[in-house]
Specification:
Elements (H helix, E strand, L loop, with lengths): L2 H4 L7 H8 L9 H14 L5 H8 L10 H15 L5
Length: 87
């Protein structure tokens, strides 16, 4: 699976939408890795907490966001996915 494979046609995946909506992407260096790690996490743990998300994305070096925005994005996407919302 690749970052491009997450979206369905022109429709972005909820994680991709949440990263845009929460301004969790800046330079783009870490974005794909964080989204893919978050997707794997949500697939195994549909309601992750902040600590679990931080641990799960920690191997993705991000110098722009300080990890706060990506964590918010993952929390939002997990909620939206649970509720069946395609953010």
């Amino acid at each position: 699976m690749t970052i491009e494979g997450l979206q369905k046609g022109p429709e972005l995946h909820p994680l991709q939408k949440a990263f845009v909506g929460e301004s969790a992407l800046q330079c783009g260096y870490c974005t794909a890795g964080m989204i893919m790690a978050a997707n794997a996490l949500i697939n195994t743990e549909p309601e992750p907490n902040e600590a679990t998300i931080r641990k799960n994305i920690a191997n993705n070096l991000c110098r722009c966001t300080g990890y706060d925005r990506p964590v918010k994005a993952v929390l939002k996407a997990a909620k939206d996915m649970k509720e069946g919302i395609n953010a």
